[in-house]
């Protein structure tokens, strides 16, 4: 009796594993943030267990708050899974094992992200459009930073230093740069292409807008 009662429950919990295969609910805001982290500093690797993948988000130890936030986002997106932390030099890899990681991150593929086409699936595009702020936050937390630019002005009274906060974003993939600038455009945030790899948000009102939902790394 007990066996038969337990069995369907187990099957039901197994069914709840994947938002793509089994229609399990997905936290869009956390997913959008995590997708930003993944496109910046994440990768999906195969493991020695057939069909099982590992997602790793590389988080710099300089920002312990961001390690926690990455772990929280993974836990919310994959609530049935154990989220692990693996320390390597200067960095902690936040990771999770699952068979369904390629369903959640179809950008998974061989080689480096900037050597292959990175295109969002329709359902991902819908989520990043709904949750553009979270997506930008994830991208900046992985591949960006908020810096203070000090500029010297010569005046009659002598040199004056002015400080301007600025956000920089650096990613070798033109596709990922495009996803970042598309999201900024949706949010009405002005940006500048600095060179092939780097983008910058420097206008006062644009920086103020990013400060509302990104801010300093912590
Ligand atoms: Zn799946």
Low-confidence stretches: 1-9
Give me the side-by-side strand order of the main sheet: 1-2-4-3
* Rg result: 20 Å
Q: What is the CATH architecture term?
A: Roll
| Tertiary shape | elongated
Q: Give the end-to-end Cα distance, rounded to a whole number of Å.
A: 53 Å
Summarize the topology.
Elements: H1 2-15, H2 28-41, E1 42-46, E2 53-60, H3 64-77, E3 84-88, E4 91-98, H4 101-104, H5 122-130, H6 132-143, E5 144-155, E6 158-170, H7 174-186, E7 192-193, E8 198-201, H8 204-213
Antiparallel strand pairs: 1-2, 2-4, 3-4, 5-6, 6-8, 7-8
The protein binds zinc ion.
What's the quick description here?
This is DOD-type homing endonuclease domain-containing protein. This protein is of the alpha+beta class and 218 residues long.
């Amino acid at each position: 009796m007990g066996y038969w009662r337990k069995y369907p429950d187990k099957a039901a919990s197994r069914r709840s594993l994947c938002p793509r295969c089994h229609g399990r609910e997905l936290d869009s805001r956390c997913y959008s943030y995590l997708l930003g982290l993944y496109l910046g500093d994440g990768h999906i690797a195969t493991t020695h267990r057939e069909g099982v993948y590992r997602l790793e988000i590389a988080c710099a130890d300089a920002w312990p708050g961001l390690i926690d936030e990455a772990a929280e986002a993974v836990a919310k997106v994959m609530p049935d899974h154990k989220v692990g932390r693996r320390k390597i030099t200067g960095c902690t890899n936040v990771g999770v094992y699952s068979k369904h990681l390629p369903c959640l991150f179809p950008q998974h593929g061989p080689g480096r992200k900037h050597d292959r086409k990175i295109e969002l699936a329709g359902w991902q595009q819908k989520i990043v459009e709904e949750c553009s702020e979270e997506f930008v936050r994830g991208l900046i937390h992985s591949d960006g930073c908020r810096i203070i630019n000090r500029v010297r002005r010569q005046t009659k009274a002598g040199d004056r230093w002015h400080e301007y906060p600025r956000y920089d974003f650096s990613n070798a993939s033109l596709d990922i740069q495009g996803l970042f600038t598309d999201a900024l455009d949706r949010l009405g945030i002005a940006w500048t292409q600095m060179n092939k790899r780097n983008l910058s948000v420097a206008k006062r009102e644009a920086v103020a807008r990013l400060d509302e939902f990104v801010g300093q790394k912590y």
